[in-house]
Design goal:
The chain is mainly β. It folds into 2 domains: 38 residues, no CATH class; 756 residues, Maltoporin, Chain A (Beta Barrel). It has 5 helices and 44 strands. It has a 22-stranded antiparallel beta barrel. Strands 4-9-10-7-8 form a 5-stranded mixed sheet. Strands 27-28-32-31 form a 4-stranded mixed sheet, with no helix packed on it. A hairpin with a 7-residue loop joins strand 31 and strand 32.
């Protein structure tokens, strides 16, 4: 009897990156008896490695682009919003977690977790703020910029699919702590927070007393801001995973907060270059928290059948204290405005998913989900003070007010896909469905005074307090019999979709996918608002969406891809329902006369895969949009009033993208590598005439400054350049990674000007980060330096004869240290 021990180590790249173990395989015959005691095939167990993601991209019929957890860890990227900006042609809008992809913003994009849609945490936006998703709990992010029928039909820019982490390999437990400082924040004694705001961990809530306000002072919190102690950013997290027979478990929990202080200016100017708002001195203090917990359970019945369950709870808070000093046209004087705002959001996403292979030709996968979202603005407040006399300005209840709202969103959704593989065909049939029930309640409590008292801007509570309650008049815009009953809107949205795809293997090198999707959308809306009054409206749409994707393999290392599709852009409920949202510089109203845009998309892409983990690609793309929707000013008594309109007959975006991921030089256990991408874009849209706008919008008119202009959000040039150094030693148990990341976002249109008021443009900016990671056996050490150039996030209003500053701030340089230990 012969005994041999064979150990084989190979890089085995598959879509799942699975490690296969074959142990003690025996073969007995009449002629010989052999025993192989150990055959070990090793590969990357992480779906998020660059090599695995690039290999999936190479094999896919559809055009896909993925950003993996391994790359993000090296760059020190902590949230999904920043992670997505590392992909080609993508930018994040300043002041939010909203993403522009190929020049198309929030309304043109969609967000999914493991392929199922997730709700927005803000009624102003279609997509959830991606900043609240932490990269520690994800495997990779898939950015689908080219449409295929499995993606939601409400698509124009991209679908961002977040794939949660799933455990493979050995059990582990990891704990991490970190801290960072913002260099323009940590030693600033003026950092303000609002009384009663969500607190250090972000869970504290407040509300108002709903009794008779003329007998009882309705507010539970103070008007004064207070100073924050020790504004140092904190990060704490634990994670672990284990495999128990056929079960796998991954769990993550973390908390982080951040402080950001900045001084800047904001303004808005009339066509004749006189100021409507000119706040030359604005102080902003912003405090954010994020608490995240995720559990991912998997059960593998056998090699052909698997189910998994994902539960993800995210609690975030965002509180800001702003002090505006400057001129306000509304009251025709210099003012001081104190405005506090805070938002608390709880999102709970639950998903059950299954994949099945019945034999060599039949495959099925399905998913069901239930999402619960609750988002509140408990106690937004504002005071307006005459900067000369120091008197509280009366005359309008909105000058001194408090505002409370709550958004509740419950969604049931799911999909099922069945595919059959024949000799040269693969046929896929599918169903998508989702039912959303959303309610938004809001109450404004405005204050009027019988006198104009002199106050200290830092001590409003000396005048507005419970002891002076008898001299206040409260206005909620409701009749006195139901003074504190909230205004509201409700939306019941039902989307039912069917889809079909056929993959045709024309030859060994040429595959064509032809498919289509049919969407039925039903929206039932009701509202009660002080301006729009009591109303309701139902909208139904039927959309058929054809798509073609073709891949030709020039050789084993090169692909040529071509894609065409039609999609649509749906008006959001907040845009359709005619309620008002008041901000310091603008007022925005919904428009029930909106209707969907139609989008036509085309892509031509060449890919080269020099070796494992490397990629070079060049893409040309075009988008043609009919009846584009945008927010803009319209002709009214208040020049800063804005609403939503189908503003253009047509618009187009033409662009080219280049991407390179390359190992520059390797020696011994060291490697210098780079990943670079760049996008150039050009856009134009033809505006509708004044008479067309009036006809479609019941008399509301827009007077555009020109017949044609750029499309909002389309930057002329976007680039990311990363240079990294990697070193491994002690049998790869220890490693060092150092990455320098540079990003350039070119000038882009922020908002279209009308009635002689100039366009608003985001000024180009450059961002530089550096990240150093040590892995010493079980210990991890990270050093980060972010926003080293500290660019101005500036929006300019370009009137005919003069350019004004609309907004101008810096975010501050940030230096951080993190430690982790893996058991």
């Amino acid at each position: 009897m012969n005994f041999r021990k064979l150990s084989i180590a190979v890089l085995f790249l598959t879509t799942s990156g699975t490690v296969l173990y074959a142990q003690e395989t025996k073969k007995d015959t009449a002629k010989s008896e052999k025993k192989i005691e150990g055959v070990i095939i090793k590969g990357s167990t992480k779906k998020g490695t660059e090599a695995n993601l690039i290999n999936v991209q190479k094999k896919s019929v559809e055009v896909i682009e993925r950003v993996g957890s391994v790359q993000l860890a090296k760059q020190g990227v902590g949230d999904v919003a920043t992670a997505v900006t590392k992909a080609t042609g993508t930018i994040k809008q300043e002041g939010s977690g909203q993403i522009f992809v190929r020049g198309l913003g929030d309304r043109y994009n969609s967000t999914t977790l493991n392929g199922l849609p997730i709700p927005s945490d803000d009624p102003e936006f279609k997509n959830i703020n991606l900043e609240i998703f932490k990269t520690s709990m994800i495997e990779y992010i898939s950015l689908d910029k080219v449409y295929n029928p499995r993606i939601l039909g409400d698509f124009g820019g991209a679908n961002v699919n977040i794939v949660s982490k799933e455990h493979t390999g050995k059990p582990y437990f990891k704990i991490g702590i970190g801290s960072s400082i913002n260099l323009q924040t940590f030693d600033n004694n003026n950092f303000k927070i609002q009384d009663g705001a969500p607190g250090f961990f972000g869970f504290k809530e407040t509300t108002f007393k709903k009794g008779n306000p003329y007998q009882n002072y309705p507010f539970n919190t103070k008007w004064n801001f207070k100073n924050a102690d020790n504004p140092f950013n904190t990060d704490m997290n634990i994670e672990g995973g284990a495999t128990l027979g056929k079960f796998s478990l991954f769990a993550y929990a973390g908390f982080e907060n951040s402080y950001e202080y900045s001084k800047g200016q904001e303004g808005f100017y009339f066509a004749e270059n006189t100021p409507n708002k000119n706040y030359t001195d604005v102080e902003r203090s912003n405090y954010k928290t994020n608490t995240t917990a995720l559990v991912n359970l998997g059960y593998k019945f056998n090699a052909n059948n698997k189910i998994s369950f994902t539960s993800n709870f995210i609690h975030s808070s965002d509180q800001s204290a702003k002090i505006y000093k400057g001129f306000s046209y509304d009251v025709d004087r210099n003012v001081i405005i104190n405005r506090g705002d805070n938002k608390i959001t709880s999102t709970w996403v639950n998903q059950l998913l299954g994949t099945h292979k019945f034999n060599d030709t039949w495959n099925a996968d399905w998913a069901v989900g239930y999402n619960i979202l609750n988002s509140k603005r408990p106690d937004r407040m504002q005071n307006t003070i005459d900067a000369t006399t120091m008197q509280l300005i009366t005359g309008s209840a909105i000058n001194n007010h408090r505002y409370f709202d709550e958004l509740k969103d419950n969604t049931v959704l799911g999909h099922a896909y069945l595919s059959k593989t024949l000799d040269k065909f693969k046929i896929t049939l599918g169903y998508d469905g989702q039912y959303k029930d959303r309610r938004f309640d809001y109450t404004t409590i405005g204050m009027n005074f019988n006198l104009s008292p002199i106050v200290d801007p830092d001590n409003i509570d000396a005048f507005i307090n419970a002891s002076n309650n008898s001299i206040f008049t409260y206005q909620t815009f409701q009749p006195s019999t139901k003074l504190f009953e909230p205004f509201y809107y409700t939306v019941k949205q039902n989307i039912q979709s069917g889809l079909a795809n056929v993959d045709i293997t024309v030859s060994e090198k040429f595959v064509v996918q032809i498919g289509g999707r049919f969407d039925y959308i039903d929206m039932q809306m009701k509202w009660l608002d002080p301006i729009a009054l009591d109303g309701k409206k139902n909208k139904q749409y039927n959309k058929f969406l054809p798509a073609l994707n073709a891949k030709y393999s020039l050789n084993d290392k090169q692909n040529l891809r071509l894609s065409f599709s039609k999609t649509y852009t749906l008006p959001q409920a907040k845009e359709l329902i005619p309620i008002a949202y008041y901000d310091v510089t603008t007022n925005t109203y919904g428009n029930p006369n909106l209707y969907p845009s139609d989008n036509y998309n085309a892509d031509l892409k060449w890919e080269l895969f020099p070796k494992s983990g490397e990629l070079m690609s060049v893409t040309a793309f075009g988008k043609y949009i009919q009846n584009a929707i945008a927010r803009t000013n319209y002709a009214s008594s208040a020049p800063s009033d804005m609403s939503y309109f189908n503003i253009s007959d047509w618009g187009y975006i033409l662009g080219a993208e280049v991407e390179l991921r390359k190992d520059i030089y390797s020696w011994s256990n060291s490697k210098i590598y780079t990943f670079i991408n760049g996008t150039y874009m050009h856009s134009q849209q033809k505006f509708k005439s004044e008479s067309q706008i009036a006809k479609e919008n019941r008399g509301k008119t827009i007077v555009f400054n020109t017949d044609k202009d750029d499309i909002q959000g389309v930057a002329d040039f976007i680039a990311n350049a990363n240079l990294g150094y990697s070193y491994k030693w002690s049998n790869n148990l220890n490693s060092l990674d150092f990455v320098v990341s540079y990003s350039r976002v070119g000038k882009n249109l922020y908002a279209v000007g009308t009635t002689g008021i100039g366009n608003f443009y985001e000024v180009a900016r450059n961002v530089l980060d550096a990240n150093l990671n040590f892995s010493l056996n079980k210990i991890g050490i990270g050093v980060s330096a972010k926003n080293l150039l500290n660019p101005h996030y500036k929006i300019e209003q370009e009137n005919t004869k003069q350019t004004f500053i609309h907004k101008d701030y810096t975010k501050g340089r940030q230096i951080g240290l993190s430690l982790s230990y893996k058991f």
